[in-house]
Specification:
Elements (H helix, E strand, L loop, with lengths): L2 H24 L3 E7 L3 E2 L5 E9 L13 E7 L4 E7 L4 E6 L4 E9 L6 E8 L4
Parallel strand pairs: 2-8
Antiparallel strand pairs: 1-3, 3-6, 4-7, 5-6, 7-8
Length: 127
């Protein structure tokens, strides 16, 4: 084979790898909500963080991508206080006001067909 043929084959393989990388690694197929820790407690220092993570076709975080999300506290808004909200990075941090109950948060995202609903329990402090 000639040198010109090898170059054409190499360019074709590189283009196929770039297209496959775009669709499998970069493109967003799903949105996952990560809650850390799972529950709040009735002490005044208990905080919880909710992150919305874009997922690619392989099932890991989409490379070089973030997603914008809107957070709306539907149920139990008087039980928590919003400490930090970043719609561009899709992060919400809330803090317990010391009252036991349940908090419901709806998450609206441009990559989701329907909004996600997250329920957080505020449990009594265990001694």
């Amino acid at each position: 084979m000639k040198k010109k043929d090898w170059i054409m084959i190499l360019i074709g393989v590189m283009i196929l790898l770039l297209i496959a990388g775009y669709y499998f690694l970069y493109n967003i197929y799903e949105i996952r909500t990560e809650i850390s820790p799972k529950h709040l407690y009735t002490d005044l220092t208990s905080t919880l963080e909710i992150k919305v993570i874009p997922i690619n076709a392989i099932g890991s975080k989409a490379l070089f991508r973030s997603t914008k999300s809107e957070f709306e506290i539907i149920e139990g808004a008087s039980l928590v206080e919003v400490i930090f909200l970043d719609k561009e990075l899709s992060i919400l941090k809330i803090k317990s006001k010391g009252i036991e109950g349940k908090v419901g948060i709806k998450i609206y995202n441009s990559h989701s067909l329907f909004p996600q609903y997250v329920e957080i329990l505020i449990l009594p402090l265990q001694v």
